[in-house]
Amino acid sequence: MWFLALILFVDGKSVDAPSLASLHYPTEAACLKSAAIRVQGMRDIGGHAVYLCMYHGEPDSELRRAPKVRF
């Protein structure tokens, strides 16, 4: 199962968004598609964040290559 990992920045400081990490997806593509919709509100109000989709226990080497979306 894949889940969304999001780092949200408010006033230049990172804050956790644990409620988004509780959602699980069957594929990375499904996770990324849902993530784009879920973060749109943050984008609309000028928020800044970085997100990616990962699976439990994913090796660091794969995480470094994973697609990351910044806004």
List keywords for this structure.
34% strand, 4 helices, five-stranded antiparallel beta sheet, 71 residues, globular, alpha+beta
Can you put this structure into words, describing what you see?
Strands 1, 2, 3, 4 and 5 form a 5-stranded antiparallel β-sheet that branches. By secondary structure, the chain is α+β, with helices and mostly antiparallel strands. The mean pLDDT is 88. Helix content is 37%, strand content 34%. It has 4 helices and 5 strands, in the order E-E-H-E-H-H-E-H-E.
What's the quick description here?
The protein is an alpha+beta fold.
Q: How many β-strand stretches?
A: 5
- As a percent range, the share of helical residues equals 25-40%
Largest sheet: 5 strands, antiparallel
Poorly predicted regions: none
Q: What's the N-to-C terminus distance?
A: 25 Å
Strand-pairing-aware structural class? alpha+beta
Q: Could you tell me the radius of gyration in angstroms? A: 12 Å
